[in-house]
Structure formats: structure tokens, C-alpha cells
Amino acid sequence: MDITSHTHHISQQYNIELDDIRKHLSEMGGMAQRQVNDAIIALVDADITKAEQVVRADKTVNSMEVSIDEECIRILARRQPAASDLRLVIAVTKAITDLERIGDEASKIARQAIAMSSEGLAPRGYVEVRHIGGLVSRMLQDSLDAFARLDIEMAENVVQMDRTVDLEYGTAMRELVTFMMEDPRSITRVLNIMWSLRALERIGDHARNLAQYVIYLVKGEDVRHTDLDK
């Protein structure tokens, strides 16, 4: 089911306004996705130019959040939407907050990459960054696709993937702590990797939130604090 067929109204202008917030959400999601992917590359490849691009892009993501939020407020004030339209507007306002925070986390990773350019590369942790980064990038892409298609099954898979990310993150952190205990000289540099892994784990949490908004949008059920099996 494509989100563009969610609801149609007699008022063509109302249809345009609803289509616009969907389109602008997708554009913001694409920008956040690029930030995450570029931040991972910047850290793993020590690409300072790309890291600086990620940091600069955060201002664009922030301004997109403000703009879309204003659009949603105007729809609420002028149209007084009900039922599925109201759920759409609410879901979009929540989703843009998570996307803005994803941008913040990507910027944190990029700043770690910049810091490490002067401190030196860490002796451990890049394999974990690449692996967990790949998982959360896929989660984000799938959650955005699920939102665009109103795909419940894809959204549920994203929520399930968050469990995997949490397990992988916990394992990676334990291994890195052990490594630092064995080689105290590495502590500063490995800590940079650990902070980056923490940012990736948080990005996974926000991607999971996006998927849960899809379930709310389609079913009208808030599943944020519901056991996944239920």
C-alpha cells in the first residue's frame, strides 16, 4: 500500500498539503540517511572532508524539522484532521523529531572522526563500527521505506532488528573494555570508538521509533511500550 493513497479529499488543496508533508518527510529522511552513511565512512576511512560535510549538513536537517513542523501545525489549525489524517500528521511530527536526533548522532560520529585525525586511529573497534553501522543504516532505510509504503511487516522487522543491534552493541562494548584494560595506552583512542558505537546504537533506537510510528499510522495502536511478541 502506497502512502499517497492513504486518504483523498474533496479539497484538492488539502490533498496537496498532506502529500507535501509526506514528501518533505521523505526528503528529510534521505538527508539523515546520507548523514549516517557518510559519518560511518568518515570514521572508518579517516575521511575528514566527509566528516565536515556531515557536521555542516546537520543545520539543514534542523531547518527541515522546523519547516515540516510548521506545515503540520498549519494543517492541524486549518483542517482539523480526524481519524487517519490526524494519525498521519501526528506520526510525521514525531518522525521528524527522531530524524533530527539521528542527524545529531551522525554529527557526533563525524566529530569523533575529526578528533581522531589528531589523536591517531584507534587500534580496535573499526570492524564493529562497520558491522553495527551497516545494521542501523539498513534499519533506517527500511523504516523510511515502511513509512512510504505503509508496510507493517517491514516495520515489524525493523523493530526486531533493534534487538540484534542492542546485542551486538553490548558485545562490542565488552570486548573494547577488555582491550583497554589490557592496553591502557589505547584508552583515549578506543573511547572515541565506543562513543561512536553508542551513537550508532541510538540511531538504531530512533529507526525503531520510526517503524513504530508506521504501526500507529496504519493500525492506530501505540506499540512503543508493548512487548514485540505481543
UniProtKB/TrEMBL annotation:
It holds the Pfam family PhoU. SUPFAM superfamilies: PhoU-like. It is found in: Cytoplasm. Keywords: Cytoplasm, Phosphate transport, Transport. Its main location: cytoplasm. InterPro entries: PhoU, PhoU-like_sf, PhoU_dom. Residues 25-112, 129-214 form the PhoU domain. Homodimer. NCBIfam families: phoU_full. Plays a role in the regulation of phosphate uptake. Belongs to the PhoU family. This is Phosphate-specific transport system accessory protein PhoU.
